[in-house]
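Archive transcription. Copying these from loose printouts into the bound notebook so they stop getting lost. Printout 1 of 2:
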Amino acid sequence: MDQKKLYIGPRLRRLRREQGLTQTRLAEELDVSASYINLIERNQRPLSAALLIKLAETYEIDIQEFAGDGGEALLDRLTEAFRDPIFQELEVTRTDLQEMASGNPAMAEAMAVLYRAYRDTAQSLSDQENSASLETATKPLEEAWNFVQTNNNYFASLDEAAERLSREISLRSGNIQASLARRFNEVHDLTLKTLPANVMMGAFRRLDRHRNQVVISETLDMASRHFQLALQLVYLEMGTRLTTVLGDLYKGSPEGERLVRIALANYTAGALLMPYGEFRASAIELKYDVDALARRFDASFEQVCHRLTTLQRPGLEGIPFFFLRVDAAGNVSKRYDGGGFPFARHGGSCPLWNVHSAFKTPRQVQTQIIELPGGEQFYSIARTVSGGGAGYDAPRAERAVALGCPIKFSGELIYAQGLNPQNAKATPIGTTCRLCDRQDCIARAHPPLRKRLLSDDYRRTAAPFAFAFD
């Protein structure tokens, strides 16, 4: 055996503790003094070859493994540590690390442990920073969503003004684009021009004051053209009204205020194209058939869904709908609640909701009864929608939207004709995994925040997590 001195105190201490021995008891079994064991464990004395052999015989350990230099595993851990940029200027070679691991394995082990602690701490701080940054980045959007929800997604002064303007320009009595173009020309001395995508340079709409033009991209479908033109008219004729509503109702951050102004402008554009009284009457007549309403008002499926969530005029309410839009990865990009649905502030939605399976059947409406853990039931329809311009290589975004309402209103929907809610089967869902307490859900991605996780060594159920209800 190599006669080099073995300073392997931490390994001896670990072995002693694994055997459940005190220093005194170990010394008795090895026929040495307790003070000698203490010195060895503190690396103040080397472990002799004779004592190493006696250790191996007494506790049936592998001498090479116990007294070795830590093997490749320790060397790899040291290599990983000294590869960190903080050691870059030291130019530590692998030979240096091999000498450290073999000459003083205790220090090598300590260095590896210290680096692991440093790395874990750095990762924790990074996670906290990213979480704080994410919170800061999403806060204005959350403020905007919460503002809309607090006001039940209905703004009377904007809705009524849009309805009056729609009647004034006879928007619903002829060609919508022609009516809007005439308004731009007669009131604002602006002409309407359609331009190719390469000229628009990525823009869908632009107000060109130099040439007195409102220019629109030819890549937009007709519903999108109508909406962009209506939006531009809102900014031109109702900008002051938007500012007044903001001043009266919004008390959040400047960043949130900009998003709220955009949301209010979009709201008003929708109200201009789908004026409240006519739209509500049509919705009732057509039993809230979204596709039929889209054809009648020359709008898109998503635009109609948006408008349906805003029918909250006192005395002339529509069905209280809620709305959600997600992409294929489950990211929520829009949500409006008019039906009492408890959307989660963070995270995605439940994967069992049909808004996610809608991607399997593009452009087809799916229906579903969903039930929350508290027993509340809702009727939901979902369908995919596309965003972006037209053209073979034009970028497009495929998303899915869900429109839902409390189950008691399902009888008014064309999608639920003949449905008996009392006998219909509901799909149990949650708002998001971390806030859902359903114990037997096989689709769960995260354990619930409010429950204690259980460990079960004897069985594995279909659900990925087991947790207590205490």
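Printout 2 of 2:
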Amino acid sequence: MIRRFSMMMAGVVLGVGATLLVSQGSTKNIFGQFWSGGQAVAAGSEIYRQLNIFGDVFERVRSQYVKKPEEQKLIKSAINGMLSSLDPHSSYLDAKEQADMRIQTKGEFGGLGIEVTMENELVKVITPIDDTPASKAGVIAGDLINKIDGENVRGLTLQQAVEKMRGLVNTPIVLTVIRKGADRPIDITIVRAIIKIRSVRYSVEGDDVGYIRVTGFTEQTNDGLNNAISKLREQMGDSLKGYVLDLRLNPGGLLDQSVSVSDTFLDRGEIVSTRGRNPEEGRRYNARPGDKTGGKPIIVLINGGSASASEIVAGALQDHRRATVLGTRSFGKGSVQTIISLGSNGALRLTTALYYTPAGRSIQGKGITPDIVVNQPLPDNLKGRVEAAGESKLPRHITGADEDKDGSGSFAYIPPDKKDDIQLNFALDLIRGVKKNAAYPPDPEKALKKKS
């Protein structure tokens, strides 16, 4: 499959999951005392002994290994080894990885505004984003970027090339492009600007259904969703019959954004709860009055690529019978990662809680089961090459309270052409009344009766 990257994503595609960002300064002196929140916590003698063993091994590797090792790399590997023994989602982020995470969650960065892929060792422009420096400078789809500020692209990975193209706002960059029909390479000077990640796209299907696709949960997502709803309402007026909310291939993102997105469609009630190691640290998130869609019918699309924050939304709307969930079982990532700052040393991404739907269902290792199961067949060229994905298949995953032998996940695939999208077209037919199904529309009598 073609690996597609977006300049808006800064060359990194991450399934960040439902991440609760906190400002939590916490450091440890492994050869003395443990420090947490400024207070020393005495360690037992066995812990000291083990830490001394680590220090001894590190010093021997550093001084006696056949080649001089990179000390920082050793430390990072040791830390990640410790964290990877916990679960698949806890990890250490160095300063650069932390910066990439900020870009991912903030939803904006200094760049050009082009979506790119790699072709024959050159960077190929898939499309310039409207009203960005790249589109204004004359970059067009199909351009092959041969040089970046005079440096040949050949030999660079796609990520390395993308990192060279992003940078400080208001700084210039020269792209040398090979364009079909041009007799020589073209130099295009572009001044970087703030590029906002478009995590929400929308369109009018036919003339009566609003289609909203959410590809991730960044700081921009809820604003993008509300803008999409407003624009669709303007375009269709009274002919608007309902909405399809497409969360397929959505790996998650910010917890607060998943709460806000759910709140957009709910008038009251619990959206999600999180439960950690200590019962008193559990939290509940509730909807505020006001359904911004005016109660219009909603169908949520999910598949094996729908994880974490997208499962929070699907689970909340399903439990409240506000939407019918259609597609195949979701990924089953029901854990919350807290980003703990380590100052200039990067950050710790640590699993600190599990989340539960309004009905008290744990998504961890199970996923969301659709109200209407509609499979999307794989094309012949992908058969045998794509496997069903799910949290329950990951080594060392946290076993969920409701996890069963069937596990979580399904195939994560969406056809590039909407006319071949069986799941989407099934949803459109349901909203229009062309097809009937016992699970649609949702039965309001079965909705949760909780006070927010």
